[in-house]
């Protein structure tokens, strides 16, 4: 709350839901108006809900007592819509940047840009094309038809980033705990499911040694709850990881979108799955993490003899619009699997990588691709990596 007071007293146009209010207050000094708001806040700590109430009350009083009396009937009528918008919208940092006046802010943004994205998908050629893979604050989606192997690839991405030193979490909404852990052992130890299940004691020892010596980051398995899991529940798990294990999450993988419950803690019902993706994107930005989510392609893609396209997105095209990266995984039968970049913020699209996996032995790339040896995943100098 003290930080909010400083913001209002030092910079008069710092929050979006009050900008329109101040712009309309043409008959009053902007600084005076903001100071009146700051003085109205008692020296107490508030919850977010209580702080919102204080702001809403101040907006209403300022609008009705100071501004509306000075407006004509027609101006006052339209201004009421501005007031309503100001009171309903959450407080957030302004999204307006003036190239001249805000050049200092723009300079800081450029300083924070990184040459590559931190979190690899896990296919070296593909990650090279994408300059790393998934960036912080990004939402990436891997779409595939049923039984193509999307769970294998998103789980592998989670494990690869843990090996690199990032703190990762895998949200399993489909497979039970034992199935996920079996695949983890297969991917890390390159063993078949039969070897993992029959030689349990040996594999536990090997897995323990691997985690202790080669996994520089952390990997958390988040299981589905009996009542289903919402985006709100996933956010609570992110907070819980910090409280229980003492570290901040870097990378979150979700398997898969159709199994996320479409209602939040406030009983808000989503109009469609597009809103779910908006909330996931907001989650990535709020916690400065990368998110990779698995999703289904629709039935048309299953029977199509051609390559799948964005039109085959299941649920809502808003998913594609919101996502920073969209990948398609297809089974080309005799040719093997193909991973295609359908959309990337860098403008890359329709770039393909053919792979020949052996899922039975935890090999997701195959040994027939000679080009793999010539590609390296870019690294980010100065990235915060646990264990380095």
SSE blueprint and pairings:
Layout: H1 2-10, H2 16-24, H3 30-39, H4 48-67, H5 73-88, H6 103-112, H7 124-129, E1 139-144, H8 150-164, E2 167-172, H9 177-189, H10 193-198, H11 200-214, E3 218-223, H12 231-245, E4 251-255, H13 273-287, E5 290-296, H14 299-303, H15 318-322, E6 325-331, E7 337-344, E8 351-355
Parallel strand pairs: 1-5, 1-6, 2-3, 2-4, 4-5
Antiparallel strand pairs: 6-7, 7-8
What would the keywords be for this entry?
single chain; disordered C terminus; Rossmann fold; 388 residues; 15 helices; 8-stranded mixed beta sheet; alpha/beta
Classify the secondary structure makeup into a structural class.
alpha/beta
CATH domain fold name of the largest domain:
Rossmann fold
Can you tell me the number of structural domains? 2
H-E order: HHHHHHHEHEHHHEHEHEHHEEE
Task: Provide a descriptive summary of the structure in words.
- This protein is of the alpha/beta class.
- It has two domains: 2-110; 124-374, P-loop containing nucleotide triphosphate hydrolases (Rossmann fold, 3-Layer(aba) Sandwich), CATH 3.40.50.
- It is 44% helix and 13% strand.
- It contains 15 helices and eight strands.
- It has helices spanning 2-10, 16-24, 30-39, 48-67, 73-88, 103-112, 124-129, 150-164, 177-189, 193-198, 200-214, 231-245, 273-287, 299-303, 318-322; strands at residues 139-144, 167-172, 218-223, 251-255, 290-296, 325-331, 337-344, 351-355.
- It has an eight-stranded mixed sheet, sandwiched between helices.
- It is globular.
- Residues 11-30, 264-270 and 367-388 have low confidence and may be disordered.
């Amino acid at each position: 709350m003290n930080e909010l007071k400083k913001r209002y007293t030092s910079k008069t146009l710092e929050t979006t839901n009050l900008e329109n209010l101040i712009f309309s207050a043409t008959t009053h000094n902007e600084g005076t108006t903001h100071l009146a708001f700051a003085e109205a806040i008692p020296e107490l700590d508030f919850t977010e809900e209580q702080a919102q109430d204080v702001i809403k009350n101040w907006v209403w009083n300022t609008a009705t007592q100071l501004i509306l009396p000075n407006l004509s009937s027609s101006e006052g009528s339209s201004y009421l819509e501005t007031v309503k918008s100001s009171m309903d919208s959450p407080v957030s940092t302004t999204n307006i940047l003036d190239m001249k006046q805000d050049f200092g802010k723009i300079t800081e943004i450029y300083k924070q840009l990184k040459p590559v994205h931190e979190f690899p998908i896990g296919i070296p050629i593909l990650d090279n094309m994408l300059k790393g893979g998934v960036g912080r604050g990004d939402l990436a989606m891997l779409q595939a038809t049923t039984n193509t192997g999307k769970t294998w690839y998103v789980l592998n991405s989670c494990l690869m980033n843990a090996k690199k030193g990032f703190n990762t979490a895998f949200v399993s909404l489909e497979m039970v705990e034992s199935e996920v852990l079996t695949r983890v052992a297969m991917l890390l130890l390159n063993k078949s499911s039969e070897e993992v299940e029959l030689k349990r004691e040996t594999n536990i020892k090997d897995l323990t040694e691997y985690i202790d010596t080669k996994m520089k980051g952390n990997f958390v398995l988040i299981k589905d709850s009996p009542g289903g899991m919402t985006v709100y529940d996933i956010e609570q798990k992110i907070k819980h990881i910090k409280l229980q294990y003492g570290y901040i999450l870097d990378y979150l993988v979700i398997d898969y979108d159709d199994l996320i419950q479409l209602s939040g803690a406030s009983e808000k019902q989503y109009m469609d799955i597009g809103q779910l993706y908006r909330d996931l994107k907001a989650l990535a930005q709020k916690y400065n993490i990368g998110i990779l989510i698995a999703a289904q392609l629709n039935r048309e893609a299953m029977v199509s003899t051609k390559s799948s396209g964005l039109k085959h997105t299941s649920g809502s095209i808003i998913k594609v619009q919101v996502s920073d990266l969209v990948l398609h995984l297809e089974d080309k039968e005799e040719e093997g699997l193909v991973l295609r970049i359908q959309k990337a913020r860098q403008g890359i699209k329709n770039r393909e990588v053919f792979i020949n996996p052996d899922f039975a032995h935890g090999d997701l790339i195959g040994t027939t691709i000679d080009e793999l040896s010539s590609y390296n995943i870019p690294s980010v100098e100065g990235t915060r990596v646990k264990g380095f």
